[in-house]
Design goal:
Helix content is 31%, strand content 26%. By secondary structure, the chain is an alpha+beta fold. Strands 1, 2, 3, 4, 11, 12, 13 and 14 form an eight-stranded mixed beta sheet that branches. It has a six-stranded mixed beta sheet with strand order 7-6-8-5-9-10, sandwiched between helices. A hairpin with a 5-residue loop joins strand 13 and strand 14 (328-336). The protein is globular, with a radius of gyration of 21 Å.
Amino acid sequence: MNNPDGTDVLAAKEPDTENAIQRVLVLEMVRVTEAAAVAAAQLIGRGDEKAADAAAVEAMRRAFDNLYMDGTVVIGEGERDEAPMLFIGEKVGMGKGPKIDIALDPLEGTTITAKAGPNALAVLAAAEEGCLLNAPDVYMDKLAVGPGYPEGVIDLAKSPTENVESVAKAKGVKPSEIIICVLDRPRHADLIAELRSIGCGVVLIGDGDVAGVIAVTDEDTTIDMYMGQGGAPEGVLAAAALRCVGGQFNGRLVFRNDDEKARAKKWGITDLNRIYKLEDLASGDCIFAATGVTEGSLLDGVKKRRMHTGETVMTTESVVMRASSGTVRWIKGEHRIG
């Protein structure tokens, strides 16, 4: 059937790239994180980190298969020889449609899940091709603050004390009133001591620094800043979230040996001391999606209940954000699994 101008009606209704990205990434990506979360949740508290992670990876991989996109994993479970699925460079989706780069962590908080602790998430970020940093699996120094501050209020080249003083001045409070989230690790002993010496409150988390960074955007958490060293891939995921809801982020890759430096070079990183800002890590129209696995400050965890019909229902809570529109959607889901 043709329009009066001779163009095909069906062809005229084909989504343009913008609409396709919106449909696939905003609406469908939640199904991907939901699938990973439901699979991982069945191993909460079982003490087996590898099994929980493997279940989330496999479920996420299957969920990608039916998505209308030509996707490439740019941050995943490792290189091909380290990960059988969702490795860096793996193609996901139907292989047609918009070209999309994917950063993912099917189970952010494997230890948390194994021990039934808080804030485990299934997480991914998606963006137009070339808009996510191909971060090697090394450590990253991270510094983050929420929205509403003047640009440049934080600077990773400055000391923790100087950054606290800068944020406190912008907020109109004393440095001692600033609350900072830090991963509870031996490597952060000096950082924690410095922060406490100026009277700051320090919120220590056992794992899950993606949720820790996102906490700076939520006034209800009372957390003003995130500081410390964690995984570089998680830094890119957190940066994608901040791109969508506002905030500032600084990251600097940390290399412990020549092997890690060589890995960075393989992914095109030549300036090993560069401080990355928010849009260096995640640019363009990016999307962040997460589903809670265990109970957390950002999202409720997966819950299981038995229906009178004998079916088992898993309930999930997810969030999906889009940078270009600033839209944040909170989504509740029910999943019958038998």
